[in-house]
Amino acid sequence: MIGVFLSILVTAISLLVVDILFKGIVITSFPVALISGAVIGLVNAFVKPVISVLSLPLNLVTLGAFTLVINGICLALAAFLVPGFAVHGVLAFLFAPVILSAVNTFLTKYFAEKYPSLPPAEVSE
Q1: Cα separation of 125 and 116, whole Å?
Q2: Structural domain spans, the chain
Q3: Percentage above 70 pLDDT, the chain
Q4: What spatial distance separates the first Cα and last Cα of the chain, rounded to whole Å?
Q5: Is the model's pLDDT at 125 over the cut of 60?
Q6: Strand partners, 25
Q7: Pfam families attached here (predicted)?
Q8: 106: which DSSP letter?
Q9: In terms of CB atoms within 10 Å, which of 11, 12, 24, 37 comes out highest?
């Protein structure tokens, strides 16, 4: 249970970093970031695999580059579901998930090394 909460917390902090870096990402408050972190986790767990399988031929033709679009779709879907979280612009749609994933991975590894007694948090992105 604590691992799930830590994963949501790390994703929320990562979203706030992405909000600072991209003008096209808007998060109105920290509670919105927490809810968005949970929704992103759910979207990545249930919707992303379906989209990935359906777009497999297109992903093969583009040598995996279409994965950027899939990640953008998942982020935009989470933004659509959470009031106070918005994605505007093509650059934010394509590259914000990449930065989100990088920051999320960094923070997850940082907390795992700093506090090894805590249960592992799963990376959302």
Answers
A1: 22
A2: 2-114
A3: 94
A4: 19
A5: no
A6: 87
A7: Phage_holin_4_2
A8: H
A9: 11
pTM: 0.89
Quote the CA–CA distance of 125 and 86 in Å, as a whole number.
18
Half-sphere exposure of 91 (CA within 13 A, CB side): 6
Residue 25: its H or E element? strand 25-27
The Cβ of residue 31 has, within 10 Å, a number of other Cβ atoms equal to 11
**What residue type is 70 in one-letter code?**
I
Tokens 């805590």 identify what position? 118
Residue with token string 């106070």: 84
- Burial zone of 64 (CB within 10 Å; 0-12 exposed, 13-18 middle, 19+ buried): exposed
- Among 37-41, 51-55, 94-98, 121-125, where is mean pLDDT lowest? 121-125
pLDDT at 120: 62
Residue type, 47: V
How far is residue 4 CA from its own chain's centroid? 14
